[in-house]
Design goal:
The chain is an alpha+beta fold and 361 residues long. It is 40% helix and 19% strand. The protein is built from 8 helices and 11 strands. The strands form 2 sheets. Strands 1-2-11-10-7-8 form a 6-stranded antiparallel beta sheet. The chain has a 5-stranded antiparallel beta sheet with strand order 3-4-5-6-9, covered by helices on one side. The radius of gyration is 28 Å and the shape is elongated. The C terminus is likely disordered.
Length: 361
């Protein structure tokens, strides 16, 4: 049935241009007026061919617009499958997220995020594939698919990160084989540095990596974090905006193997009424026409009392105003607000465990 409908649509798209072309040829060959050289005959002939040409242009334009709508519809389906809508509330947390692609006409880009509730707590991933736009979709799919399984299977956050590393490495090997198939048996490729050395099909043709942040919020509000080259989240508490993490991040996934011992950073507790703001580097790296970076901490401080959805709207509005409506990189934002009603015990609120303020760009 689908093939029949596609055939009918294709016949309709070809039928009208064919009819117009046949009319033009018939007029030129069979109409006596087209054979005359007078001014009036030439005007009529020109009008006929102009009408045919205009009709063809309009038809092609409509066909291209139809194709663009279909592509955008497919992109929307891909967006729903990859960056699926997050629940508004999850285990007492108010959740909101949004993504903006820097590539015109693209519904999704190289940024990724997800939030899942597990028996170990609410686990969050946010990442940024090298580059932007549609080229990183397969990497986004590999990392998100691995996270959605590992977050439930692995009791330790470090084990989740290692699963993501293996998934990324496997995807890069698959791309390397597709980009540079293995040579036939007995053949070799000579080079200036490695003469008579066969090309290794598992070596990626282009360097690719992912900055990645793993976050865990336990039921008692304890926050644990693993960061591979990603911007640190911000904690919005009272009237202050502070960087959550204090330790130096690990290298991005794909550049170097993870160290043998992965140390998960404890970041204190997310108390009721406090908010975590996660973002990709497209936010803070955005520049205006004078080369000035987007002042994300100041914008957050101005909207610190807003609910998650309103906070996202305030940041995106300020970002688009700062960049003149055209950000140079993909931007993804994720907000988690602790709306749990159960108060924490005083022992769970030591001031020594609160993150120290850190200056933004």
């Amino acid at each position: 049935m689908v093939r029949i409908k596609a055939g009918i649509r294709r016949a309709r798209s070809l039928g009208l241009p064919t009819m117009w072309g046949a009319m033009a040829i018939t007029y030129k060959l069979a109409c006596p007026l087209s054979q005359q050289n007078g001014l009036g005959a030439r005007i009529v002939t020109s009008a006929v061919f102009f009408a045919v040409g205009t009709g063809l242009v309009v038809h092609v334009r409509r066909a291209l617009l139809r194709e663009l709508r279909d592509v955008r519809r497919v992109a929307g389906v891909a967006q729903s499958a990859l960056l699926r809508p997050l629940p508004a509330r999850l285990d007492g947390l108010n959740v909101a997220a949004a993504q903006l692609s820097a590539e015109p006409g693209a519904a999704i880009g190289g940024d990724l995020y997800d939030v899942v509730g597990t028996e170990y707590g609410v686990r969050v991933v946010m990442g940024d594939v090298r580059g932007h736009g549609l080229g990183g979709l397969d990497t986004v799919a590999a990392v998100l698919g691995s996270f959605r399984e590992a977050a439930h299977d692995e009791p330790e956050l470090a084990s989740v990160m290692r699963r993501l590393e293996r998934a990324l490495a496997r995807r890069l090997r698959e791309r390397a084989r597709a980009e540079r198939p293995a040579p036939a048996a007995g053949t070799a490729v000579e080079g200036p540095d490695t003469p008579d050395t066969p090309v290794a099909p598992d070596v990626p043709v282009t360097e690719e990596f992912v900055t990645l942040l793993l976050l865990e919020i336990r039921q008692d509000g304890a926050v644990r974090l693993l960061n591979c080259g990603h911007p640190s989240p911000y904690l919005l508490s009272g009237e202050s905006v502070t960087a959550l993490a204090r330790a130096d991040p690990l290298p991005p996934l794909g550049l170097f193997p993870l160290p043998a011992d992965l140390v998960v950073e404890g970041c204190g507790r997310l108390l009721p009424g406090e908010t975590l703001f996660l973002h990709t580097d497209g936010a803070e790296d955005a520049r205006d026409t004078h080369g000035r970076f987007f002042p994300l901490p100041e914008v957050l401080a101005g909207a610190i009392e807003e609910q998650p959805q309103a906070l996202l709207g305030a940041v995106f509005t300020a970002l688009l105003r700062h960049t003149g409506g055209s950000p140079a990189d993909d931007v993804a934002l994720l907000v988690l607000r602790n709306d749990r009603q159960r108060p924490l015990s005083p022992a769970a609120r030591p001031g020594s465990q609160r993150p120290q303020p850190a200056s933004g760009k």
